[in-house]
Structure prediction request, 94 residues.
Amino acid sequence: MVVDGASSHRSKELEIPKNVSFIRLPPYSPELNPAEQIWNILRRDYFANRVFDALDAATTQAESGLAEMAANKSAIRQLTNWPWISAIFENVME
Prediction:
């Protein structure tokens, strides 16, 4: 699992299953975190130049945008399945 430097990913109380290993990203490297790419597209395509009158409206917009993005599997794959990530999984599976 690729994780960033969030404190919850470093907690001594976090129990990690034996079949899971963490690949830690360097500090302050959002450009290496595939999830950040999803948020960038969501902000650009679903939130730009919009004003919401309530948090519920913004939440609904986020849910709608994420569902629409998730439906386009090839686009999500392009955003998140980078060569360095694929190489890690290939090495793990050997």
About this structure: Residues 55-71 form the longest helix (17 residues). Strands lie at 2-3, 23-24. The mean pLDDT is 83. DSSP finds four helices and two strands in the chain.
